[in-house]
Request: fold
Amino acid sequence: MSQPELPIPDDLAAYKELHKTITSLPAFQQEACIALMHGDSIQAIADDTRRARGTIQFHMQCIGQVLTDKGFDLGFVQSA
Reply:
């Protein structure tokens, strides 16, 4: 069995910055962001939290804006 590759310092720095950014979010946005990162859909998050889908979408837009403001590439264009 081969050994896993050692982390690249730039990757560790990015991970630390991402972790710091996520923990700076309000508690609900942290929970929603983590759920999304684990593969939950916006609808599933809405159902689990008993909030409207539109409310979750609003929070996701806020999270996306914070991440792009910090320089993270989300892989899509944020709408204004």
